[in-house]
Amino acid sequence: MLDLNKIVSELVRKSLHSDSILSLTAQIGRHLLYRNDRLSFKIWIGHLFAILRDSMLKKKAVVWTSIFIPSELIYAMGCVPFHAEVFALVAAYLNVGPEMIHAGEQEGYSSDLCSCYRCAAGLGSGSFFPVPDLIISSSHLCDGSTAFFRNMAKYYGVPHLLVDVPYGNDKNAEDYVSRQIKDIILQAEEVLSFKFDIDKLRDVLTISNETRKYYERFNRLREHVPAPFPGSRALTYVSGMMFISMGTHEGYSFSKALCREVEADIANSRPAIPDEKHRILWLHQVKPYYKNSIFTDLKDRGAVIAAEEITYIYWSPYDLRCPIEALAGRMMENINLGPIERRLNAVRDMVSRYKIDGIIHFSQWGCRQSSGGAYILRRSFIEEGIPFLVLHGDCADPANYAEGQTKTRIQAFLEILEST
Amino acid sequence: MKTWNVSEIEQQLEDYLHTEVHKIDGVIGWFCIDFPEEIPISFGLTPLRLMPPPGAIIADSLLDTNFCPYIKANLSHAYAGDYSFLDGLVLANTCDGMRRLFDGWKKFARTPFRHLFDLPRLTTEVSKEFYRRNVLKLIAHMEDFFSLKMEEQKLSEAIRLTNRTRFLLRELYKIYNEHPGSVGYRLVQQCCRASAILPKTRVNKLLEELITRCRPPRALRTPARKCRGDASEAGQNNKRGDSVRPRILLIGNILENSEIAPFIESCEAQISYDDLCTGSRLFHDSIAEDCPPLDALCEHFANKVPCPRMKDVDRRLNHVMNLVKEYKIDGVISYTQKFCDPYLYDIPLIKASLKRALVPFLSIETDYSQRISGQLKTRIKAFLEMIQ
């Protein structure tokens, strides 16, 4: 039988030493498509590679952007959004993480920084990413994001426009964010020589609102017991599509296909795992993307990731009468922004909706914003009788993944679940 | 007149922190230098920068292991009740760590007044307006909580008082540079520490006495500040003189380590200047005294040497490179608390700028320890030998 991971990783490794990155990535895409016959997965791969193709071939202006800038803004500008974090994690999945992380560290990025950004820095400085025409990022949720995109703008010699999202969530803060988005649009018009069309933004937001309805439906379907959709997949391509495709027809088709597939799985009694015993909530935006045994170990003991924080729909539908303010509102509604109580309340809602038995907080090495709140959340949920595991790990760097230790911690956690 | 030395200042700080501060009403704790101390001072409150000894092991169960040790030390002391004397805490929204510290403080400590002071990362007109509104919000919160009323006159007086401290610290750095043998960097470091901990009138007196020992009194007049262009006076006398010792620029965030400066000096090198949160960044830029005080505070935030958290990295890089030129620096040592993202992300850019200028660079990440390990000594020594 073909070892697909080995083939993919060999292809990527070869591509690091040739100019034909595009054709090789297309080959990888084709290989990946064989892995899964679901329409939603095919749309994800198709969209991912369309972005790679368009940005590598410079079919449109390329705007590097952080994952918490609503992609709708970039699509409304008529540009290709290139999410460096998403593609860094794709690289980690394709087993080139360590090589790129090493390259990032050679540039001076400390090994104590988030591996996702170290990997992205290695890919950026090694010319494996498309050259940006402009960089637009936001300051939420983490300091690493602001600094990484700022550094990359200096590296490529392109302007960096930052949406500075404050801690507070009052009228003053809303006004601050809205005015910055307006300024950014004006500056982007100047840098990229185009005229921003507010009606196009409304069209994009309309598609996004329709997509959002399907994601809400998807989440309602996931309340079903046994869980119809595994978190390991939600943490890859569902969250990925939520970042890179909101406001596009591909994003809409994806969310619709996803709902239909999950409806069919429920109707045909095809649960995510065969013998569900424990329903787990996964906290933090990422998981390890390289080869690891975490999800198999959970599955083997009857534990399913029934839901995850990253796919939680925290934002209200966009108000098309005031699209800029609506974008600002979405950025400010993020549950990880502001005081920890906001996140705590959202997690409580998830625990109740998805009938959660236990919580795993994946504490990504180098992440301060999410991991910094883990122990406060842990204390709160343990007081409320919900077992809570703080699982240290790394999304991109296998060097920070200790398999034996991770297994032991998961086993101990599952034993607690089994005894309650 | 008293002649201060390092151990006497340390003793003063010890006495103040262990005894005196507990008897004062209206002590307001703060952490980052972006917090405008002038506001509590104008209310008659007493600001105090929280610079505790390293934290207890309990910190590992409150915050993640890969977290800023300075923040962990503070939270563990708060958890242990060591800050029960505080009447208030103002925490600036400087970084992820500070935001999580605020969460932890609310859960584990019982400080009556708590305020998160939102700070922009930009210095545009829009962000200046946002900053101004946040200053007003802090004032309103303090007025309401402490039943006090802000008076513009008092705010102007507070600005004059803190400017005096800044001026005196600049004078001290100037003396340190003119006569490297007479004032060691450790003394300068302790004076900076005292300026953020002791009440300003008291620290000003201490600095005046210390400077008078080395300088004639005519040097102690504080020139009124203008709105813009406040050049560093400490850099005006920076000739190399006859010294052949390598001249080091120390950059980074919190330097609480008591052994590092003496060790560098023992290796026949001189710390000629610093760009630290616990050093020159406390006093490098004064606040204008010839315009309305609130305007002056806002302009000061926008124009001062930027913290690495700010988006405009060029201003910071230029500042570091200017210091290298101004002080004829032979090598730069970055001394940063581990896991401090804003500073750590600056390293690749600083490293590249210094490399272009052929200035040797050493990056140290440390754990808020008061001591210096053998391994670190070896690294520093090797670096200094390379320069020599």
Give an account of the 3D structure.
The complex is a heterodimer of chains A (about 425) and B (about 400). Chain A has about 425 residues and is of the alpha/beta class. The radius of gyration of chain A is 21 Å and the shape is globular. Chain A has 2 domains: about 5-195, Rossmann fold (3-Layer(aba) Sandwich), CATH 3.40.50.11890; about 225-235 and about 270-420, Rossmann fold (3-Layer(aba) Sandwich), CATH 3.40.50.11900. Chain A has a 4-stranded parallel sheet, sandwiched between helices. A 4-stranded parallel sheet of chain A has the order 6-5-7-8, sandwiched between helices. Chain A has helices spanning about 5-15, 20-35, 40-55, 70-75, 85-95, 95-105, 115-125, 145-155, 170-190, 200-220, 230-245, 250-265, 295-300, 325-330, 340-355, 375-385, 405-420, and strands spanning about 60-65, 80-85, 135-140, 160-165, 280-285, 305-310, 360-365, 390-395. Mean pLDDT of chain A is about 90; it is low at about 15-20. In chain A, strand 5 (about 280-285), helix 13 (about 295-300) and strand 6 form a beta-alpha-beta unit. Chain B is an alpha/beta fold and about 400 residues long. Chain B contains 14 helices and 8 strands. In chain B, the strands form 2 sheets. In chain B, strands 2-1-3-4 form a 4-stranded parallel sheet, with helices on both faces. Chain B has a 4-stranded parallel sheet with strand order 6-5-7-8, with helices on both faces. In chain B, helix 1 packs parallel to helix 7. The interface between A and B is large, with 46 and 50 residues.
